[in-house]
Fold this sequence. Notes:
Blueprint: H1 9-15, H2 21-35, H3 44-64
Amino acid sequence: AYEIPKRDWSSDVCSSDLGHGVGFCVGSIMKYAKRYGKKDGHNRKDIMKIIHYGIILLHIYDKQNNINKEK
């Protein structure tokens, strides 16, 4: 049987050229920041999601502004 490979669709949306990346990342950061302490209490998973989408947003910013990584 054929198995569909697992992919992180959120990363696909963020890195696509559709122009949705910034809004999607900012919305996700806000979602997890507002949820922190409410759903499942104060948990590491929500903090990691905030950091995850923040890093993707930083990558999009750098790419749009032609900023190279520091050596």
